[in-house]
Amino acid sequence: DDICDYFGVKIAMYFAWLGFYTSAMVYPAVFGSILYTFTDSDQTSQDISCVVFAIFNVLWATLFLEEWKRRGAEFAYKWGTLDTPAESLEEPRPQFRGVKRISPVTSAEEFFYPPWKRLLFQGLVSVPVCLACLTLIFLLMLGCFQLQELVLSIPELPRILRFLPKIILAVIVTACDELYKKVALWLNDMGAL
């Protein structure tokens, strides 16, 4: 509470999480120490204790996250930030275009983009572009595999040339990654207008 009063809610929430996390780490540390102490030196016993510890960690992580959700909500309520959703604090995207209307929920003026237009864009542009990108990368990958088979079938080629198809595939993947990022951003911007 003193941190919240002095530094604000964001910093206080961070330190509350940090304290909660630190105290919650006691459970895996104690369980792991006990398990390590009673594990024999043979490989089978070590494998079994490793699996048991992994299962314990999965359960612990799940319980930890659920407990933090509850504890974080308590702090948010206590510090007066529970009723303020994060999206209401942010300004709408400046690129968003739509028709101004009165919201049927809040009765405030807002921009509205009809869902049928978004679905039309998704069906006629987004899906075909994504399918074309998938087909392109699939065909390029198959071509690299065929080139690999060809290179391996020629025994008199120098060893360094045997890596050529793998290098080409790596270059193609890198180039397509950059291209697909631009396509994804364009589709996202156009689909949300």
From TrEMBL:
The protein's GO terms of the molecular function aspect are: chloride channel activity
Membrane topology per record: Multi-pass membrane protein
Keywords from the named record: Membrane, Transmembrane, Transmembrane helix
Q: Which GO terms describe its cellular component?
A: plasma membrane
What InterPro entries does the entry give?
Anoctamin, Anoctamin_TM
One matching Pfam family, short form?
Anoctamin
Q: Which residues cross the membrane?
A: 12-36, 48-65, 119-142
Where does it localize?
Membrane
Describe the location of the Anoctamin transmembrane domain by residue ranges.
3-190
Name the domain of life this protein comes from.
Eukaryota
Its family?
Answer: Belongs to the anoctamin family.
The name this protein carries in UniProt is: Anoctamin
